[in-house]
Amino acid sequence: MTSPLATEAAPFGRVLTAMVTPFTPDGELDLAAAQKVASYLVDQGNDGLVISGTTGESPTTTVEEDGHLLNAVIEAVGDRASVVAGVGTNNTRHSIELAQQARKAGAHGLLIVTPYYSKPPQSGIIAHVNEVARAGEDTPVMLYDIPSRTAVKIAEQTYAELTKNPLVVAVKDAVGDFERGAWLMRETGIKFYSGDDAANLGWLAYGASGIVSVVSHAASRPYADMVAAVDAGNLPEARAINTRLLPAVKAMMTHTQGAITAKVALQLLGVLEHRTMRAPLPDATDEEVAIVRAGLVASGLLES
Questions:
Q1: What count of other Cβ atoms lies within 10 Å of the Cβ of residue 39?
Q2: Going by C-beta distance under 8 Å and a sequence separation of 6 or more, which residues neighbour residue 75?
Q3: SS3 at position 53
Q4: Taking the complete model, does pTM exceed 0.85, yes or no?
């Protein structure tokens, strides 16, 4: 199902958060908290959310939990934002099951990460994406290219092949090669979304459609303002926003895993009551909480 907010230039919106999955203190899925977080993020300027991605701790959730979470978020904000379901795994059959579930739930998009650990050849990546996309029927696809986690980068020729599928419309890029990305946008027409908060401004300047962010758990409004500044050709304003957010980006993205720091940020902002993680990710330490707090304060996102 295509989002009512989708445009040709930005098929999934402009500012998307790779949303955390809230858990109760005993580690169970907390759907009420998920709806609260989703509503907060959209109120703060997101026009899209990615559910059950890496930041959503998807390796630790079941198919049933993914379905409950997706339904809850669509119920909460599906009329105000694009809801993209993370369905990528290193098992094509498993991903097909998730894609079918997401389509039935009414997801506006599917996020398909390069299969990890098994390091498939490019032909395997092509087959995997096309089979999962087929399972989603008319649901548009955002690829996720993050070789630092998957150990495999999507080759330029593979992009050319995958974009022959009309459902493959975008990529969340965590490769970070601006020249390569600009070439792929030119040659294939695929829409780019920044998948690395440190590179958000750079990708927007190169013509990316938007961002899929972790730091936006705390900085959705400034990121929306940065996108608007780039659109208006006001590069000094966009740079100023980016510079102001650097302490938050450093605090949330360089000291420990982003899902951990995103939950800390939401708790500090009073949005999330519990910052419970699922193993193998540990709950944040007091030192990590202090680092995130200092970064948010320095960026003007939290009062000291």
A1: 16
A2: 35
A3: coil
A4: yes
Q: Quick check: helix, strand or coil at residue 252? A: helix
Backbone angles phi, psi at 213, to 5 degrees: -120, 150
| Bridge-based pairing state of the strands 109-113 and 82-86 | parallel
| Side-chain half-sphere CA neighbours of 96 within 13 A | 9
Read out DSSP for 69-135? Answer: HHHHHHHHHTTTSEEEEE---S-HHHHHHHHHHHHHHT-SEEEEEPPPSS---HHHHHHHHHHHHHH
- Among 172, 191, 193, 223, the active-site one is 172
Pull the structure tokens for residue 172.
């969340």
Q: Which residue among the candidates 144, 159, 193, 223 is catalytic per the annotation?
A: 144
Distance CA 213, CA 174 (A): 11
Cα separation, 130 vs 133, whole angstroms: 5
Instruction: Note whether 245 and 50 are within 8 A (CB).
Output: no
Structure tokens at 31: 């759907």
Q: Is 144 a catalytic residue?
A: yes
Question: Beta-carbon neighbour count of residue 72 at 10 Å?
Answer: 20
CA distance 155 to 230: 29
Quick check: is 172 catalytic? yes
Count CA atoms within 13 Å of residue 259 on its CB side: 24
At residue 129, the pLDDT reads: 98
What is d(CA 166, CA 140) in angstroms, rounded to the nearest whole number? 8
- The residue with tokens 């559910």 is 51
pLDDT digits (tens, 9 = 90+) for 88-137: 999 999 999 999 999 999 999 999 999 999 999 999 999 999 999 999 99
3-state secondary structure of 142: strand
CA distances to 52, 141, 173, 180 from 176, rounded to whole Å, are: 23, 20, 7, 9
